[in-house]
Amino acid sequence: MDKDLVAVIIVSDDLRYREKLNDFLSGEEFIEIAGEAASGEDALELIRQTPADLVVVCPSYNDFDIFRRIRFQNQVKILVLSPQMNLENYFWEIGVNGYCPADLTREELVSAILGTIYNETYQCPR
Question: Which fold has domain 6-123?
Answer without folding.
Answer: Rossmann fold (3.40.50)
